[in-house]
Write a structure and sequence with these properties.
alpha+beta; five-stranded mixed β-sheet; three-stranded antiparallel β-sheet; 5 helices; globular
Length: 132
């Protein structure tokens, strides 16, 4: 499941009921809970928008089955994250791109990342050792 996160919502400031008017109940819940999640256990890449970012989003879904994926599109960059741990495999990214891919090529479009990172030839892992 991929969930688009609305524009930035400060952790200490949940939208008022007036600001929530016109939003679905699910979107209202995301506004409050997703803002808190930024400061808790979310991990993953922050990438320049483009074909590689799109492939990474699809690969994250496939390589982490049963996990909820959060995608925040800021036009110039895209936050791709999930709670506690995310694994991205080279083979899955290659399949989504439709061409050969080396994991170190990810660094070209990787603006930043949340969590700790462990990089290997065939996969990259974003994770937190401790859960807050």
């Amino acid at each position: 499941m991929t969930r688009q996160i609305p524009e930035k919502c400060p952790v200490d400031q949940k939208p008022s009921s007036g600001e929530r008017q016109g939003l679905s109940e699910e979107t209202s819940m995301i506004l409050g809970s997703s803002a808190q999640a930024y400061h808790n256990n979310m991990v993953g890449p922050i990438m320049r928008a483009g074909d590689l970012a799109t492939a990474v989003i699809e690969a994250a879904k496939l390589d982490n089955p049963g996990r909820e994926l959060f995608v925040e599109d800021k036009r110039a960059y895209i936050r791709i994250h999930m709670e506690q741990e995310m694994v991205l495999r080279r083979q899955t990214i290659e399949e989504e791109l439709g061409r050969p891919f080396k994991m170190n090529d990810l660094e070209v479009d990787l603006s930043s990342f949340a969590g700790q990172i462990e990089s290997r030839d065939n996969e990259i892992r974003f994770y937190f050792v401790k859960k807050i």
